[in-house]
Structure formats: C-alpha cells, structure tokens
Amino acid sequence: MLPNNDLVKDPRRLQYFLLADIIFVILLISIIIRQIVLIFVRRRKSYDESRLYIKFVNLFAAMALGPAIGLVIITSLFFNLELRTWYGDAVRDAVVNSNIVAKNYENEIQAELISDTQLITREILQSSQNNEVNINNIRRALSEFINLRTISSIYIFNNEGNVYLSLKDVENKNFSNPSDDIYNILDENRVYIFQLNQNSIAAFKKINFLNNVYMQVNRELNTNIWDHISATKEAFRIYTTKEEESSGVQVTYSMIFVLFSICFILIAILIGFNLASNLSKPITNLIHSANKISDGNFDAKVSESDQFEEIKILLTSYNSMITEIETKQNQLIAKSNEDEEKRIFIEAILSLLTIGVLSLDKDFKIILHNKTVENLFKKTRKFSINDNFLNIFPEWEKIFNNFKLSNKLLLNFQYDFNIFDDQRNFNIRVIKEISDNVIEGYVVALDDTTSLILAEKHAAWSDIARKIAHEVKNPLTPIKLSAERIEKKFIDEKYSKDEITLLTKTISRQVDDIGKLVDEFSSFARMPEAEIKLDNLSQCLEDSFQLYFNSRKDIKLNFIKTDKDIYFHFDKLQISRCFNNLIKNAIEAVEKIPNPAVEVKIQNDNNIKIEIKDNGVGIDDKMVSKIFEPYFTTKAKGTGLGLSIVKRIIEDHGGKIKIEKNKNMAGTTSLIIFENNA
C-alpha cells in the first residue's frame, strides 16, 4: 500500500499500529522465554533430548531469519522509494506553485480592496466639511462610487460599534465590530483585511480626519474560485506538515517492519518449538532406547502412538528390528554358552595336563593354548591368541614347513632350550588335523623331559656308584687286615721297624682314600629325602660363612645381607652342606694369589639370590658346561662329586645354580636363585 493511506494521513493510527506490534512481540517473547525455561528444566533431566530440541529450534529460526530480513530490507526500500516519490520535486513544485497562484490571486483581491478603501477614504474627505461627519454628503459621494466598484457594502461607524452609515445593507447583516486588537492596529493608520465569511472579505480603515470614525468595506468573492484557493492552501498546509513528518513516518514504518519481522521470526521459533518437540521426542526416545539396548535391555521399545506417519513407520520398523535382534542375540547367547561350556571343559582338561598343548590353524596361528606352555618357558616366550607359532619359535620354521608338505601325520623330535641360563630338554610332538584331505590345523605338545633325563642320569650314576662301592669295598678290608698282619709279623725281622711302619701306613692311607671315594659314591647314590620346613635362610648362610671367617684370617672375607632376615622352606642340613662346599671352593681358589678375597651376598628381590664371589684365577669357558657333571674335577685330589651333589640339592629345592667368570674382575661367581616360597 502506498504511503498516502490512512496510516500516513493519521500518524496516531500509525503509532497505534506500532504499539500493537510491540505488545504482540512482547507476548511472543514471553511465550518463548517460558519455552526456554522449560528447555533448561528438560536439560537437567535429559541433556541429549534438550540438545536435539535446541538444534531443531535453531534450524527453524535460521530458516525464518533469512526471509524475514529480506522482507524488511525489500519493504523498507519500497516504502522509502514510494515516500520519496510522494514528496518528490515534481509534486512539491506543483503544490508550491498552486499555493503561489492562490496567494497571488488572494493578494490581488486584497490589493484591489485596499485601493478601493483608500479611494473611498478620499471621497469621504472631500465630502466632509470642517472635519465633521456629514452623512448625507458621504452617502451621495459613495453611492455613485459604490456602483462603479465591486463593493458589496460599506459601513461608517465609531469605536463603540455604532454604525453611522450603511450602504447596500440596511440591516447591517455583514457588519463586524472589530476587536480591541484591530482597533489598535487601525490607530496605526493601517488597512486591515480579514475573511468575513466563505463568500466575502472585509477591509477596516480608520478615517484619520474624523474623530473615532472607522470604515468597513466588504467585497463578495467568486465562490468556486475561492473554494479552489482554500483547497490549494489547505493542500499546501497538509503537504508541508506531512513533509516535516515524513522522517518520523519513515522511522515508524521501519520500526513496524522490523517488529513485523521479529514477529515473523518469533512465530517461526514457536513453530520450531512445536515441531522440534514433535521431532526431537521420538528421536530422543530412539537414542534412550538404543542406549538401553546397548546395555542389554531389549524391553526398551519406543511408543508408536501420537507421531507423524513417517516417524510412526520408522518407530515400527525400529521395534521390529529390536525384536529380531533380541531373538538373534538369544540364539547367539545360547550358542555362545554352549561353546563356552565346551571351551571351559577343554581348558579344564588342558589345565590338568603337565605338558604344554597348543592348537594351531592351517597357517600356524595360535587358536588355543594352556597355561602350562607359559609356565614351561617362564615368560621367555610370549604366547597370545592369533600370534604365529613360528614367530615365537623361528628355529622350527624349516621343520614345520617340511612337515606341512610331507604325508606324515605325526612329527616327534627333541630340542634343547636355554631358559634363564638353565638348559632344558623338550620332547615335541606335532599332530596334523586333516578333513577331506585338507589340513585344517595342528596340535602341538611340548613336554619338558629335563627332570626325567636328569633322573635317569642320576639313577644311572647311582647304580654305577653302588656297583663300584660294592666291588671296591669288598677287597678293602682284607687289604687293610693283611697290612696290619704284615706289620705285626715283620716288626721283629730284618726290616727296620720304621720301614715296615711306613709301608703299612702307606697301604692303610691308600685304603682310606679308596674308602673315602666309596663313601662319596655311596652318598651320591643314597641322597636322603629333604626334610623341608620354614627356616631362616640368611642365618644358615651366615653360619656357614662364620666357620671360615674365624679360621681364615689370611683371606679377606666379606658377608653382605639385607636388613631383614629371609625366610624360606628348605632342608637346613642339605643347604648348609651346599653353602659349605661353595665357600670352601672359593677359599681354595684364592689361597695361592696375592690379596685373596671372597664375598658372600644374599638379597631378596622378586627371587632370593645368593652370590659367592672370589678373585681367584677363574674358570675356563670350556669347563663351565662340564663342571656339574659327576666325576669332573679340576683339583688334584678331588672326586668330582661335590658340585654334582650341590646342584642336585639346589634343584630338589626348586632352585637353580650356575658358575661363571666375573665380568669386571678376575675370579669366579657362584649364583644360586630360589623362587620365594615363604
């Protein structure tokens, strides 16, 4: 609508419309604030739902914001353009020129009336004598004059409003007594023009040469022309007023458009609130339901009522999917439980086995293994599901690949491993799993035969020792008795007593040496069972150390122990025998060197470690592997059984022993390691 409508013509109506817009905006804002408060309340209860709700509201608000801003810009531009057109130069020139023409016409009529009034004044002056009013003379003078002019009526009156003379109006109908303000103006010798009525104008003039005498001259107007002049003047007045108000009208209209846009946005937001509620609620219910289902609650189905048809279809499909998933899950759980029972049964069987068992697929990847495998290798090799078995044992790659390509179903071989410097012997069996002439996998059994082989060796040497003891000890007694008889028989003969005594003592000493050897054999063969009990291992070691500390002042002996005593389950007699043997060997190793020193140390970390270190000549690398073998010795008078017995006692207590050269100094270190069983 163009700006010359009723609102533009009447700014108050425009302001009423603006006020109505403001009230409507405030109402919408209050409703939205209430919705926002409800959102915060809902957010405390469910953050996910409120977040989705707000996203939908923002989406609809953004959709409304663009068109609304565009509408404001376009409408404002259109309004301003129309307003500038309404108050354009052409319109302004037409209105101003019309007003000028009307004023000129009005001024021309007024000028003629003023001129006539001046002429009448001169006529009255000529007809008056001695400055006295002669009504008759004036009447005669003016009667002829009034007929010649466009004068409708003339009145001669005093300052009290009393008419002396009235021409063409006997009843003085058109006479108007001036106000005091007009009288004051007339006293200043002026002609006063005023609008008498719609059809006539009047001129007031004081007759100066007559005391308190005034004149009113009336002139009738052309009604049509004067109406046009009045309309032109009124139009100019209205145009001028509206031109002054145009900036305010423009601002008001702009505010109306802005408020209308705000209303549009707020309504869109309210619609967004409604749609968001209808859309976010089922989606939020879906989210909550999905979360509950992820926790295993398949009863969390969503309501399908009071929804959009499309969303209702979605929810129906979703609930059907949940039902199907629940059914499939129950089937999977049943199958999983069955498989789990089988797995537990197999693992229970495998855990009872003392041998390590692994199940491999056709590519040698580990499918299953028991705990015994890890225990056998003491974490030196790591076993994990899906790891390649040949990456754990690369030394067997060629053996396994050849077995894979062969027609054999069973592979059996022996292999030695060095585990924490402990030589272990394993018997390995590999069985192919074949279905329809296709290899599906392998079963590998790892059996630690070290103790069995060692037991066989011990048994063999024990048997030998018993036989040697039997065969050697039998002739010892007769030899010794014969030597004694010889001593008695030949004591008084030609042989000197000292010579015979020397001979017999030599025989007896040799027999004693043989007896000592037999006793060592017997000790090795009849190793008594250990009597295990909890005791102070630190004190046991210190007691063995003190035996030599007090007697060997020529050697620097040092004992290092922890602040706290170390307790261990062991046979004190057997372990003391080991400590004595090792300390004695260390002392013997340093007897013939300068600055001899022996250090005995015990510590308890994860395991119990005992070190007996000397600074002697050390041991040859070639002898390290043989030093624990029976009858192997580096001593001139040694039997070679001492360290074998020590190793056997240590192993019977679940420990390990090794002897090695010192790294940073001369000499040898004997290291004993026990797993802490206290």
Write the layout of secondary structure elements.
Blueprint: H1 6-9, H2 11-45, H3 47-86, H4 89-127, H5 135-148, E1 153-158, E2 163-167, H6 180-187, E3 191-197, E4 200-206, E5 213-220, H7 223-294, H8 309-352, E6 356-361, E7 366-369, H9 371-377, H10 389-392, H11 397-405, E8 410-419, E9 422-435, E10 438-448, H12 450-489, H13 497-525, E11 533-536, H14 537-549, E12 556-560, E13 567-570, H15 572-589, E14 597-604, E15 607-614, H16 621-624, H17 642-652, E16 656-661, E17 668-675
Parallel strand pairs: 12-14
Antiparallel strand pairs: 1-2, 1-5, 3-4, 4-5, 6-7, 6-10, 8-9, 9-10, 11-13, 14-15, 15-17, 16-17
Structure description:
The chain is α+β, with helices and mostly antiparallel strands and 678 residues long. Among the domains are: 92-233, 3-Layer(aba) Sandwich (Profilin-like); 353-448, Beta-Lactamase; 454-525; 533-675, Histidine kinase-like ATPase, C-terminal domain (Heat Shock Protein 90, 2-Layer Sandwich). 58% of the residues lie in helices and 18% in strands. The protein contains 17 helices and 17 strands. The protein has a five-stranded antiparallel beta sheet. Strand 14 and strand 15 (607-614) form a beta hairpin. Helix 12 packs antiparallel against helix 13 (497-525) and helix 14 (537-549) runs parallel beside helix 15 (572-589). The chain is rod-shaped. The model is unreliable at 1-5 (pLDDT under 50).
